Amino acid sequence: METRTRFNLNAAIENWQQELAAQPGLAPEDRRELESHLSDSVAELRQRGLNEEESFWLARRRLGSPQRLSEEFVREDPARVWRKRLFWMALALLTVQLWKLTFRTAFVAITDFERFLPEWVVFYVPFWLQDLCRGAGRGRFILAFGFYLPFVALLVAFARGRLSGQGAATRLFLWNRWRFLCATTVLVLGVHLLNAIVIQRAYQFITSYPLDLYLEAITSMCLVGILAWVLPSQSNAASARVEAN
Amino acid sequence: MISKDLVAASSKPLVLSILAGGESYGYEIIQKVRELSGGQIEWSDGMLYPVLHRLERDGMIESKWKKSETGRERKYYFLRSNGRKALQAERQQWLMVHNSLRKLWKLEPALT
User: Fold this and answer.
1) Residues of chain A with confidence (pLDDT) below 70
2) How far is the CA of A155 from the CAs of A60, A144, A159, A164, A195, in angstroms?
């Protein structure tokens, strides 16, 4: 059993935030707004003479349980849960696609390193390493392991509970629609360009850039478009709609 | 105590009227409603935000994050011109209902 320690308001608010984050109907911005409300409420109750712990619990009770809050938000805007799911699906697809492409690029570049490195550099690479690189294709089992490892790690992290530290990072990343759009576009185009250059060098396509690669690049950009469209940030979505009117 | 349906129906004109008096944030709006009604209109704190967000989606109000003098961040809401028009329509409807009831109940004539 835990021993009872002094009440910590910040920790309590942090916990409450995590409870909110577990609800499907609340966007990051909604949570921020609710937290600002809770802080106002706590401050006022403290002025009336309640202690920190009492103020927190009363303010929390007045605001309603996280589940009820989420229900109220969803009832007002039923599409939001759907939008959130679409966002995560598109993000997962894009991540898998980009990782696959990066992995393929790295694989081709490593097995065919003689084409990409100047002769004098190759001269200094130890023979055992050269053999290892040339024979990379044979170690398919190890390769597959390397490919799936990040996904397994991610799944384990999710299963162990929310990715806590990463929450702040995503919030920052998702804050602004334009920042998100620019960052992902640069990333997608960069990965595709690198892949194209490496493949071109290795297989010597003389006529044209193969259709498959174009299609892949187009799919990636479509996914980025979907992500930007359903970005879970209310004020951005609202202001975009206002501009459209 | 006012019934749930009436609380829901009156939330729009109340919010718009309060914002017509100047920008405000969720907590302050709730306090004001409580004060105005002498505690008779009891809004659960969490129910106001979906209402505000719907009004924002409908283009009647606008929001902006601002730092208050205490350093705490708050999301302030402002009335837009669409909201001002909507408020006028609401006002007419509510006064119409109000006048009809007054006549039926034979209270003293309405002021408008």
Assistant:
1) 1-4, 136-141, 159-176, 204-209, 232-245
2) 32, 17, 6, 14, 27
> B62-80: per-residue pLDDT in tens?
998 888 777 788 999 999 9
Tokens of A198: 């490496």
Q: Which residues of B touch A (CB under 8 A)?
A: 25-27, 44-47, 49-51, 53-54, 56-57, 59, 62-63, 65, 70, 72-75
For A19, residues 6+ apart whose C-beta sits below 8 A from its C-beta are A66
Give ipTM to 2 decimals: 0.85
Q: How far does A75 lie from chain B, in Å, by closest CA?
A: 8
- Sequence-distant (≥ 6) Cβ neighbours of residue A45 within 8 angstroms: A54, A55, A58, A59
A79–chain B Cβ distance below 8 A for any pair = no
Using a CB-CB distance cutoff of 8 angstroms, which residues of chain A are in contact with residue B29? none
**Contacts of residue A43 in chain B, CB cutoff 8 Å?**
70
pLDDT per position as a tens digit, B12-48: 999 999 999 999 999 999 999 988 888 888 777 888 8
User: pTM here?
Assistant: 0.61
For residue A33, give the nearest of B51, B72, B75 by CB distance.
B75
